[in-house]
Amino acid sequence: MSYTLGQEQLDSIEDILNQDLIDNGVRCVFLIDMAGNIIANLDNGEKQHDIYSLAALAAGNFGAVSAMAKIIGENEFSLLFHKGKKENIHFNKITTEFLLITIFGNDISLGFLRLKVSESVEQLKDILKPLLSS
Amino acid sequence: MAFVNLKEKEIQVKIVYYGPGRGGKTSNLEYIHRKFANRINTEMVTVKTHGDRTLFFDFLPFDIGVINNFNVKIQLYTVPGQIKYNATRKLVLRGVDGIVFVADAMVLRREKNILSLKNLQENLSEYEKSIFKIPLVMQYNKIDLKEQGIPLLPMATLERDLNSKLKKTSFASSAVLGTNVIETLKRIISLTVTSIKKDLK
Protein backbone atom coordinates (compact mmCIF):
# COMPACT_ATOMS: atom_id res chain seq x y z
CA MET A 1 0.00 0.00 0.00
CA SER A 2 1.60 3.24 -1.17
CA TYR A 3 0.22 6.71 -1.59
CA THR A 4 1.11 9.77 -3.59
CA LEU A 5 0.78 13.50 -3.06
CA GLY A 6 1.10 15.93 -5.95
CA GLN A 7 2.60 19.40 -6.23
CA GLU A 8 -0.73 21.14 -5.71
CA GLN A 9 -1.66 19.18 -2.60
CA LEU A 10 1.80 19.60 -1.08
CA ASP A 11 1.75 23.32 -1.82
CA SER A 12 -1.61 23.66 -0.07
CA ILE A 13 -0.30 21.71 2.92
CA GLU A 14 2.76 23.94 3.17
CA ASP A 15 0.65 27.08 2.86
CA ILE A 16 -1.56 25.96 5.73
CA LEU A 17 1.42 25.13 7.94
CA ASN A 18 3.19 28.36 7.09
CA GLN A 19 0.22 30.62 7.70
CA ASP A 20 -1.14 28.96 10.81
CA LEU A 21 2.04 27.90 12.53
CA ILE A 22 5.36 29.23 11.25
CA ASP A 23 3.99 32.78 10.84
CA ASN A 24 2.72 32.57 14.40
CA GLY A 25 6.14 31.83 15.85
CA VAL A 26 6.42 28.03 15.73
CA ARG A 27 10.06 27.07 15.14
CA CYS A 28 9.53 23.89 13.23
CA VAL A 29 6.57 21.85 12.05
CA PHE A 30 6.41 18.54 10.28
CA LEU A 31 3.67 16.39 8.95
CA ILE A 32 4.41 12.67 8.97
CA ASP A 33 2.54 9.42 8.47
CA MET A 34 2.41 6.68 11.08
CA ALA A 35 5.08 4.71 9.22
CA GLY A 36 7.49 7.57 9.92
CA ASN A 37 7.57 9.05 6.40
CA ILE A 38 7.85 12.81 6.13
CA ILE A 39 5.21 14.52 4.03
CA ALA A 40 6.08 18.13 4.73
CA ASN A 41 8.53 19.91 6.94
CA LEU A 42 8.91 23.61 7.51
CA ASP A 43 10.95 25.73 9.88
CA ASN A 44 11.62 29.36 10.56
CA GLY A 45 15.24 29.03 9.40
CA GLU A 46 16.80 29.23 12.85
CA LYS A 47 17.57 25.59 13.53
CA GLN A 48 18.04 22.49 11.44
CA HIS A 49 17.04 19.20 13.06
CA ASP A 50 17.68 15.65 11.93
CA ILE A 51 14.08 15.36 10.79
CA TYR A 52 14.23 11.79 9.48
CA SER A 53 15.26 10.49 12.89
CA LEU A 54 12.79 12.79 14.60
CA ALA A 55 9.98 11.50 12.39
CA ALA A 56 10.85 7.85 13.04
CA LEU A 57 11.00 8.41 16.78
CA ALA A 58 7.86 10.56 16.82
CA ALA A 59 5.83 7.93 14.96
CA GLY A 60 7.16 5.25 17.33
CA ASN A 61 6.50 7.39 20.38
CA PHE A 62 2.99 8.22 19.26
CA GLY A 63 2.27 4.56 18.60
CA ALA A 64 3.63 3.59 22.01
CA VAL A 65 1.53 6.21 23.79
CA SER A 66 -1.62 5.13 21.91
CA ALA A 67 -0.96 1.52 22.88
CA MET A 68 -0.56 2.58 26.53
CA ALA A 69 -3.88 4.46 26.34
CA LYS A 70 -5.66 1.35 25.11
CA ILE A 71 -4.19 -0.79 27.89
CA ILE A 72 -5.61 1.52 30.57
CA GLY A 73 -8.97 1.69 28.81
CA GLU A 74 -8.68 5.06 27.07
CA ASN A 75 -9.29 5.42 23.37
CA GLU A 76 -6.43 7.90 23.13
CA PHE A 77 -4.76 10.69 25.09
CA SER A 78 -5.89 14.03 23.75
CA LEU A 79 -2.82 16.02 24.76
CA LEU A 80 0.66 14.86 23.80
CA PHE A 81 3.25 17.36 24.71
CA HIS A 82 6.84 17.33 26.00
CA LYS A 83 8.23 20.35 27.75
CA GLY A 84 11.91 21.25 27.69
CA LYS A 85 13.87 24.22 29.05
CA LYS A 86 13.91 26.04 25.73
CA GLU A 87 12.15 23.79 23.25
CA ASN A 88 8.80 22.04 23.48
CA ILE A 89 7.26 19.46 21.23
CA HIS A 90 3.59 18.84 20.57
CA PHE A 91 1.92 15.95 18.71
CA ASN A 92 -1.49 16.02 17.10
CA LYS A 93 -3.15 13.20 15.24
CA ILE A 94 -4.86 13.95 11.91
CA THR A 95 -6.99 10.96 10.89
CA THR A 96 -5.63 7.56 11.89
CA GLU A 97 -2.69 7.67 9.51
CA PHE A 98 -1.12 11.10 9.91
CA LEU A 99 0.53 13.11 12.64
CA LEU A 100 1.38 16.79 12.94
CA ILE A 101 4.38 17.64 15.09
CA THR A 102 5.34 21.13 16.16
CA ILE A 103 8.46 22.34 17.93
CA PHE A 104 8.13 25.69 19.64
CA GLY A 105 9.82 27.90 22.22
CA ASN A 106 8.57 29.36 25.48
CA ASP A 107 7.42 32.55 23.74
CA ILE A 108 4.25 30.76 22.63
CA SER A 109 1.73 29.50 25.14
CA LEU A 110 0.58 25.91 24.88
CA GLY A 111 -3.05 27.04 24.68
CA PHE A 112 -2.38 29.31 21.71
CA LEU A 113 -0.37 26.60 20.00
CA ARG A 114 -3.13 24.03 20.46
CA LEU A 115 -5.64 26.44 19.02
CA LYS A 116 -3.52 27.10 15.94
CA VAL A 117 -2.68 23.42 15.53
CA SER A 118 -6.33 22.42 15.65
CA GLU A 119 -7.16 25.04 13.03
CA SER A 120 -4.47 23.61 10.74
CA VAL A 121 -5.58 20.06 11.43
CA GLU A 122 -9.12 20.79 10.27
CA GLN A 123 -7.83 22.11 6.96
CA LEU A 124 -5.27 19.32 6.54
CA LYS A 125 -7.96 16.69 7.08
CA ASP A 126 -9.70 17.79 3.89
CA ILE A 127 -6.55 17.11 1.89
CA LEU A 128 -5.43 13.94 3.66
CA LYS A 129 -8.69 12.13 4.29
CA PRO A 130 -9.24 10.86 0.75
CA LEU A 131 -5.72 9.39 0.67
CA LEU A 132 -5.91 6.50 3.08
CA SER A 133 -9.53 6.32 4.01
CA SER A 134 -9.69 2.54 3.87
CA MET B 1 3.39 2.29 3.17
CA ALA B 2 5.73 4.07 0.82
CA PHE B 3 5.15 7.76 0.36
CA VAL B 4 5.64 9.28 -3.09
CA ASN B 5 6.27 13.03 -3.08
CA LEU B 6 5.66 14.34 -6.59
CA LYS B 7 6.77 17.85 -5.66
CA GLU B 8 10.22 16.85 -4.43
CA LYS B 9 10.35 13.83 -6.75
CA GLU B 10 11.09 11.62 -3.79
CA ILE B 11 9.97 8.17 -2.59
CA GLN B 12 10.31 7.14 1.06
CA VAL B 13 10.47 3.42 1.68
CA LYS B 14 10.39 1.52 4.99
CA ILE B 15 12.35 -1.70 5.34
CA VAL B 16 12.28 -3.64 8.61
CA TYR B 17 14.83 -6.20 9.83
CA TYR B 18 12.88 -8.82 11.78
CA GLY B 19 13.98 -11.93 13.63
CA PRO B 20 14.69 -13.53 17.01
CA GLY B 21 16.60 -11.70 19.74
CA ARG B 22 20.41 -11.61 19.45
CA GLY B 23 20.16 -12.76 15.86
CA GLY B 24 22.14 -9.88 14.33
CA LYS B 25 19.54 -7.37 13.11
CA THR B 26 21.27 -4.41 14.74
CA SER B 27 24.64 -5.74 13.53
CA ASN B 28 23.31 -5.66 9.96
CA LEU B 29 22.44 -1.99 10.32
CA GLU B 30 25.73 -1.21 12.03
CA TYR B 31 27.65 -2.80 9.17
CA ILE B 32 25.60 -0.87 6.58
CA HIS B 33 26.20 2.33 8.51
CA ARG B 34 29.99 1.75 8.54
CA LYS B 35 30.10 0.67 4.92
CA PHE B 36 28.11 3.62 3.57
CA ALA B 37 29.39 6.20 6.04
CA ASN B 38 30.06 8.62 3.18
CA ARG B 39 26.45 8.44 2.01
CA ILE B 40 24.71 8.45 5.36
CA ASN B 41 24.99 11.82 6.98
CA THR B 42 23.05 11.09 10.13
CA GLU B 43 23.81 8.99 13.15
CA MET B 44 22.06 5.66 13.56
CA VAL B 45 19.24 6.15 16.03
CA THR B 46 18.96 3.39 18.54
CA VAL B 47 16.73 2.90 21.55
CA LYS B 48 18.47 0.38 23.80
CA THR B 49 18.11 -1.04 27.25
CA HIS B 50 20.98 -1.08 29.73
CA GLY B 51 22.04 -4.49 28.56
CA ASP B 52 22.69 -3.14 25.04
CA ARG B 53 19.68 -4.95 23.62
CA THR B 54 17.30 -3.19 21.27
CA LEU B 55 14.32 -1.95 23.28
CA PHE B 56 12.26 -0.19 20.67
CA PHE B 57 14.07 -0.04 17.35
CA ASP B 58 17.18 1.03 15.49
CA PHE B 59 16.74 3.43 12.64
CA LEU B 60 19.03 4.26 9.75
CA PRO B 61 17.95 6.46 6.83
CA PHE B 62 19.89 6.74 3.61
CA ASP B 63 19.58 7.79 -0.01
CA ILE B 64 20.13 5.18 -2.66
CA GLY B 65 20.06 7.66 -5.51
CA VAL B 66 17.72 8.25 -8.41
CA ILE B 67 15.42 5.56 -9.85
CA ASN B 68 13.05 6.56 -12.70
CA ASN B 69 13.65 10.26 -11.93
CA PHE B 70 12.74 9.76 -8.27
CA ASN B 71 15.15 10.18 -5.41
CA VAL B 72 14.68 7.05 -3.30
CA LYS B 73 15.11 7.38 0.46
CA ILE B 74 15.33 4.11 2.31
CA GLN B 75 14.52 3.97 6.02
CA LEU B 76 15.92 0.88 7.70
CA TYR B 77 14.46 -0.26 11.00
CA THR B 78 15.08 -3.18 13.29
CA VAL B 79 12.60 -4.57 15.78
CA PRO B 80 13.38 -5.75 19.31
CA GLY B 81 13.70 -9.51 18.96
CA GLN B 82 12.92 -10.56 22.50
CA ILE B 83 9.53 -12.26 22.86
CA LYS B 84 8.28 -9.84 25.53
CA TYR B 85 8.54 -6.83 23.23
CA ASN B 86 5.79 -7.83 20.81
CA ALA B 87 3.83 -4.61 21.31
CA THR B 88 6.78 -2.52 20.12
CA ARG B 89 7.51 -4.96 17.28
CA LYS B 90 4.00 -4.43 16.03
CA LEU B 91 4.43 -0.66 16.12
CA VAL B 92 7.62 -0.77 14.08
CA LEU B 93 5.93 -2.94 11.45
CA ARG B 94 3.33 -0.27 10.81
CA GLY B 95 3.55 0.86 7.18
CA VAL B 96 6.35 -1.58 6.33
CA ASP B 97 7.21 -1.97 2.64
CA GLY B 98 9.83 -4.73 2.78
CA ILE B 99 11.24 -7.17 5.34
CA VAL B 100 14.56 -8.90 5.95
CA PHE B 101 14.10 -11.89 8.23
CA VAL B 102 17.38 -12.41 10.09
CA ALA B 103 17.50 -15.98 11.36
CA ASP B 104 20.14 -17.22 13.75
CA ALA B 105 22.00 -20.19 12.26
CA MET B 106 23.09 -21.57 15.64
CA VAL B 107 21.63 -25.00 16.42
CA LEU B 108 20.55 -23.66 19.81
CA ARG B 109 18.27 -21.07 18.20
CA ARG B 110 16.33 -23.30 15.84
CA GLU B 111 13.06 -23.07 17.74
CA LYS B 112 13.42 -19.30 18.25
CA ASN B 113 13.69 -18.71 14.49
CA ILE B 114 10.52 -20.63 13.80
CA LEU B 115 8.60 -18.84 16.56
CA SER B 116 9.80 -15.44 15.37
CA LEU B 117 8.76 -16.12 11.78
CA LYS B 118 5.34 -17.20 12.98
CA ASN B 119 5.13 -14.06 15.07
CA LEU B 120 5.99 -11.99 11.98
CA GLN B 121 3.19 -13.64 10.06
CA GLU B 122 0.71 -12.90 12.88
CA ASN B 123 1.80 -9.30 13.27
CA LEU B 124 1.63 -8.66 9.53
CA SER B 125 -1.85 -10.11 9.36
CA GLU B 126 -2.97 -7.55 11.95
CA TYR B 127 -2.11 -4.91 9.34
CA GLU B 128 -3.87 -7.04 6.73
CA LYS B 129 -0.60 -7.93 5.05
CA SER B 130 0.42 -11.38 3.95
CA ILE B 131 3.87 -12.78 4.65
CA PHE B 132 3.64 -14.54 1.28
CA LYS B 133 3.00 -11.35 -0.66
CA ILE B 134 5.18 -8.76 1.05
CA PRO B 135 8.73 -8.30 -0.32
CA LEU B 136 10.83 -10.50 1.99
CA VAL B 137 14.41 -11.75 2.02
CA MET B 138 15.69 -14.47 4.34
CA GLN B 139 19.10 -14.13 5.91
CA TYR B 140 20.78 -17.00 7.79
CA ASN B 141 23.20 -15.20 10.00
CA LYS B 142 26.32 -16.04 12.03
CA ILE B 143 28.00 -18.40 9.55
CA ASP B 144 31.34 -17.03 10.83
CA LEU B 145 30.79 -18.95 14.09
CA LYS B 146 31.51 -22.22 12.33
CA GLU B 147 35.23 -21.51 12.50
CA GLN B 148 34.98 -21.24 16.26
CA GLY B 149 33.48 -24.72 16.44
CA ILE B 150 29.98 -23.56 17.39
CA PRO B 151 27.38 -25.99 15.99
CA LEU B 152 25.37 -24.40 13.19
CA LEU B 153 22.25 -25.61 11.42
CA PRO B 154 22.88 -26.80 7.87
CA MET B 155 21.50 -24.41 5.25
CA ALA B 156 19.13 -27.15 4.05
CA THR B 157 17.61 -27.38 7.54
CA LEU B 158 17.16 -23.61 7.79
CA GLU B 159 15.54 -23.57 4.36
CA ARG B 160 13.22 -26.41 5.33
CA ASP B 161 12.32 -24.84 8.69
CA LEU B 162 11.74 -21.31 7.48
CA ASN B 163 11.57 -21.06 3.73
CA SER B 164 9.95 -24.21 2.38
CA LYS B 165 6.58 -22.53 1.92
CA LEU B 166 7.69 -18.94 1.49
CA LYS B 167 10.32 -19.71 -1.16
CA LYS B 168 12.03 -16.33 -0.80
CA THR B 169 15.59 -15.47 -1.75
CA SER B 170 17.94 -16.42 1.07
CA PHE B 171 21.51 -15.54 1.99
CA ALA B 172 23.97 -17.19 4.38
CA SER B 173 25.59 -14.27 6.11
CA SER B 174 27.78 -12.88 8.80
CA ALA B 175 26.50 -9.51 9.95
CA VAL B 176 29.61 -8.97 12.07
CA LEU B 177 32.03 -9.54 9.18
CA GLY B 178 29.70 -8.11 6.55
CA THR B 179 29.37 -11.30 4.51
CA ASN B 180 26.26 -10.97 2.31
CA VAL B 181 24.96 -8.02 4.33
CA ILE B 182 25.03 -5.65 1.38
CA GLU B 183 23.74 -8.38 -0.97
CA THR B 184 20.76 -8.88 1.33
CA LEU B 185 20.13 -5.15 1.41
CA LYS B 186 20.39 -4.77 -2.37
CA ARG B 187 17.99 -7.63 -2.89
CA ILE B 188 15.34 -6.33 -0.50
CA ILE B 189 15.60 -2.80 -1.93
CA SER B 190 15.15 -4.10 -5.46
CA LEU B 191 12.17 -6.30 -4.48
CA THR B 192 10.55 -3.51 -2.51
CA VAL B 193 11.00 -0.82 -5.17
CA THR B 194 9.60 -3.18 -7.82
CA SER B 195 6.60 -3.93 -5.64
CA ILE B 196 5.95 -0.22 -4.99
CA LYS B 197 6.13 0.51 -8.73
CA LYS B 198 3.55 -2.20 -9.34
CA ASP B 199 1.41 -0.89 -6.52
CA LEU B 200 1.36 2.62 -8.00
CA LYS B 201 0.42 1.57 -11.51
What can be said about this structure in brief?
The complex is a heterodimer of chains A (134) and B (201). Chain A has helices at residues 7-20, 51-71, 110-128; strands spanning 3-5, 28-33, 38-43, 80-83, 88-94, 98-104.
Could you explain how this protein is built, in words?
The complex is a heterodimer of chains A (134) and B (201). Chain A has a single domain, classed as 2-Layer Sandwich (Beta-Lactamase), CATH 3.30.450. With 134 residues, chain A is α+β, with helices and mostly antiparallel strands. The mean pLDDT of chain A is 91. Chain A has 3 helices and 6 strands, in the order E-H-E-E-H-E-E-E-H. Chain A has a 5-stranded antiparallel beta sheet, with helices on both faces. Chain B is α/β, with parallel strands linked by helices and 201 residues long. The longest helix of chain B is centred in the C-terminal third of the chain and has 20 residues, at 181-200. Chain B is built from 5 helices and 8 strands; from the N terminus they run E-E-H-E-E-E-H-E-H-E-H-E-H. Chain B has one domain (11-200): Rossmann fold (3-Layer(aba) Sandwich). In chain B, strands 1, 2, 3, 4, 5, 6, 7 and 8 form an 8-stranded mixed beta sheet that branches. The model of chain B has no long low-confidence stretch (mean pLDDT 93). The chains are: A alpha+beta (134), B alpha/beta (201). The A-B interface holds A 1-7, 10-11, 33-39, 50, 52-53, 56-57, 59-60, 63-64, 67, 97, 132 and B 1-8, 12, 14, 42-43, 45, 47, 56-57, 59, 61, 73, 75, 77, 87-88, 91-92, 94-97, 196, 199-200. Strand 1 of chain A pairs parallel with strand 1 of chain B.
List the SSEs and their pairings.
The complex is a heterodimer of chains A (134) and B (201).
Chain A: E1 3-5, H1 7-20, E2 28-33, E3 38-43, H2 51-71, E4 80-83, E5 88-94, E6 98-104, H3 110-128
Antiparallel strand pairs in A: 2-3, 2-6, 4-5, 5-6
Helix pairs in contact in A: 1-3
Chain B: E1 3-5, E2 10-18, H1 25-35, E3 45-48, E4 54-67, E5 70-78, H2 86-93, E6 98-104, H3 110-126, E7 136-141, H4 155-163, E8 170-172, H5 181-200
Parallel strand pairs in B: 2-5, 2-6, 6-7, 7-8
Antiparallel strand pairs in B: 1-2, 3-4, 4-5
